[in-house]
Amino acid sequence: MWILFAFGSAFFAGITAVLAKCGVENVDSDVATALRTIIVLIFSWIMVFVTGGNTDISSVSFKTWVFLILSGMATGASWLCYFKALQQGDINKVAPIDKSSAIITMILAIIFLNEALTALKAVSIVLIAAGTYMMIEKKQVSQNTNYKSSWLLFALASAFFAALTSILGKVGIENIDSNLGTAIRTFVVLIMAWIVVFVKGKAYDLRHIDVKSILFIVLSGIATGCSWLCYYRALQGGPASVVVPIDKLSILVTILFSYIVFKERLTKKSLLGLILIVIGTLLLLVP
Fold first, then answer.
1. Most-buried pick from 95, 203, 263, 285 (CB within 10 A)?
2. 107 contacts 244 by C-beta, under 8 angstroms
3. Which residues lie below 8 Å from residue 280, measured CB to CB, with a gap of 6+?
């Protein structure tokens, strides 16, 4: 069943990207992310009470609390580093490094979770890495772009914390209901998201959000909630080195709906990269 939840996570994550794109057209992305996290938190706790997972709160161990909080903090740290890297460097250089989080996750899972490194898994890592790189379109960058050498450190930190989020989350939900684990972790993420908003002085943007944007932000929050619930349910039953890449297949859903809604097309290079990612991910499912 964990494979089904992993693919469910990918589907809802792909839908989230499209809904979020519609929702942030007239809203600052940091503010939209913080608002969306509120919806995810509400949705997560509703699922906890519906499934009866709230009965496990009193029995959550200290170790579990620590790893869930650390997982949420890692997500927040990843966002902070990512936006800082974008602020200082060129997006066509920052994005490929941030995408490497899936590869880092598999490597960390092998090192810290003792997941086996087989020949097929090694080939998959190479294919996914190559495909992800090819999916990043190289665009002409203005010579007036503000450039600072420290962007590289922030970009690497963003990818590392994103990968660390999955590893810590995997450990944190070993002995509790996955819905409860997701809800606890999301509360930490909510705090980190609003820290970003207030630190950057963007709280005043809340007064200028239109109804259409709010609708899409709410829908994207619900989709995010579904994705996270499926994702951590999959992590609870399956290996992180397989669950994470499957979750990354959300790009297939995003591309499909981007074509339907926004009429966006893939270049030949991007299509080849997408094929490599899919092949690499499917290889991970081979026994």
1. 95
2. no
3. 123, 124, 125, 126, 127, 128, 131, 245
21 close to 243: Cβ distance less than 8 angstroms: no
Residue 143: what pLDDT?
44
Length of the chain as a residue count: 287
| 3-class state of residue 265 by DSSP | coil
Residue among 286, 275, 270 nearest 128 (CA): 275
**Contacts of residue 52, Cβ cutoff 8 Å, sequence gap at least 6:** none
CA separation for the pair 47, 231 (Å, rounded): 14
Q: What share of the chain is helix, strand, coil (3-state, %, to 5)?
A: 80, 0, 20
pLDDT at 43 over 80: yes
Sheet strands (E) in the chain: none
Q: Region 118-138: what's the mean pLDDT?
A: 80
What phi and psi values does residue 144 have, to the nearest 5 degrees? -90, 5
In the DSSP assignment, the letter for residue 239 is -
pTM score, two decimals? Answer: 0.68
CA angle 75, 81, 82 (to 5 degrees): 85
Beta carbons of 93 and 259 less than 8 angstroms apart: no
Separation of alpha carbons 164 and 252, rounded Å: 24
